[in-house]
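Task: complex structure prediction.
Instruction: return structure tokens for all chains below.
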Amino acid sequence: MQEIIEFISNNLQIVYIIILAIFVGVEVIKSIPAVLHTPLMSGANALSGVVIVGAILVMLHSDPTDYLALTLGFAAVVLGILNVVGGFAVTNRMLDMFKKKK
Amino acid sequence: MNVTLSIIYLIATVTFVFGLKRLGHPDTAKSGNLIAATGMGLAIVGTIFIHDLEVPTIIYVLIGTAILVGAIIGWLIAIKVEMTKMPELVSLFNGFGGASAALIGIVEFGNADISATSASIVATILAAIIIGAVTFSGSLMAYGKLNGSVRSVIKIPQYNIVNNLFIFGVVVLAVYMVATGIDSSILLYALLAGGLVYGILFVMPIGGADMPVVISLLNSLTGIAAAITGVLYDNMVMLVGGILVGSAGIILTVAMCVAMNRTLASVIFGSFTATGGPEGANRTMGSIKSTTASDTAIMMNYAANVIIVPGYGLAVAQAQHVIHELEELLTGKGVNVKYAIHPVAGRMPGHMNVLLAESNVEYDMLVEMDDINPQFTNADVVLVVGANDVVNPAAHNDPSSPIYGMPILDVENAKHIVVNKRSMNVGYAGIDNELFYNAKTAMLFGDAKKVLTDLVAELKNM
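Output:
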């Protein structure tokens, strides 16, 4: 309990950001019609690939001789960028089909 | 942190919010996706090049190689995948994101001097590992179930209790590690293995139409994993991006549950048949009347208003192109044709819209449930293709039915109803559909693609 209170007081800004971001997410998404739920799901999925930023940081901070960290970091970057590029590309492909109508 | 990089992250964060917002309207969706992708690109390039670290060239080469390899594979998968396989693809990519978060956690655990690190940071690292591992194995399991390579629905007795005890054990282990600050790689890998096993256990008993709910939930979890990693690095773009995905995923999950008349708990902890009981399945409701493609074609030919109700069966039979051909033929003959789209039609929400758009169906012809329902009374013929539960009147008039209260398409109000199904098998809810016994209903049995092709051929001869 002591830890939790300490964490909140040390990271008050982060706590504010998390709470406000939840509201932004809910408000932005809830008005989206069911028609677009599939592209939305794959678009949001691409966004969760933002974890790649962390993977790059891991590699930047790694010692060039720390092979375990480098290997894991390398795999994390590959998987993260796969999520990002694949997600955005397939969303774009789907939305292209919506546009073709005219 | 470097000021330039902070500003880049700020811009990227704004593009995420803005991009998601624009994804909400068909006219702006494409640009929304591109805006968010640009922001992501900026964040990635900025992270690589803008920092005050002394980084050996070899690291840059490795990062560049990793990005190139991952980007090429991701791109190839994205341009090759069939549109009917979207649910599989989303869960696969999602699993990769989760794996990435788990790997980051493992490296950071190794880098940190755990006994000297504050408990909140250790907790953050462990949370990233557990959630990342659960999403990774859960998503791969979902992928396997969706493409049919994992068929078995294992139902050991007291499955839920075993499952819950298991994740409880994993969490207890994590709490123990945080509380004692013990720096043990054996415990770390035990935790990782626990997360991986739980992901499989969690998805294993969930089946059929509930899969999209699970994918959406896992999607949301990956977002949360990314946000947790963001807390770890005090990195705003990861934090906000992750939270946005997390809350978006939850909203979509709830929307899907509402459209299928299920609670999230019932999706995760039990199946329809367990709650609904067998009373509806064996009840005889009268006789059914079957029809032929040529009779149906004649009826449609002389109709003024036709409404097509495409469902899961159409997606499975890959009949989206033939149905467009049918619709074009009818329109050419002066028939007013519309598609009635239930929110969960297809293999995931909004999937039917993507499939029909792929076949070049005009966007204006796809009418959402609330708008089309009043129009069924004016419809001369309704053609139901591969849909069952979403047109079951029991949702309105049978309080004992498991789908009672579910929003449905009011197909029964039309003058004539033609239902294409492969057989009289019950739909996902495992209940009979009185619509099929309605005096206005004729059944047109057969594979959706075959039947629609026959209909097109008959219409061409008229």
